[in-house]
Specification:
The protein has two helices and two strands, in the order ααββ. The model has no long low-confidence stretch (mean pLDDT 85). It has one domain. The chain is elongated, with a radius of gyration of 18 Å.
Length: 80
């Protein structure tokens, strides 16, 4: 079974692995133990992807829009 034991190097790698896990679970050909392992890995990857998306959203939201509606600069993102 292909598995990612640590955080993947990128959002795209994590999403691709998560899609494989979903397809495998939907196919129903995994044993109960494999299904549990796949589900656990999928949950971890889901969390990783959500964190990456939250970070990207925060960076986008930090872009300052001028009166003309165009990007006018950025402000430091304060996660606190």
């Amino acid at each position: 079974m292909e598995s990612v034991s640590e955080d993947p190097p990128s959002f795209e790698v994590a999403l691709a692995r998560l899609e494989k896990i979903v397809h495998r679970l939907e196919a129903g050909d995994a044993t109960l133990e494999e299904s549990i392992d796949l589900y656990t890995e999928g949950q971890r990857l889901k969390g990783f992807c959500e964190a990456k998306l939250a970070g990207a959203t925060a960076r986008i939201e930090a872009i300052v829009v001028g009166q003309d509606g165009r990007a006018a600069g950025i402000t430091p993102f304060d996660a606190g």
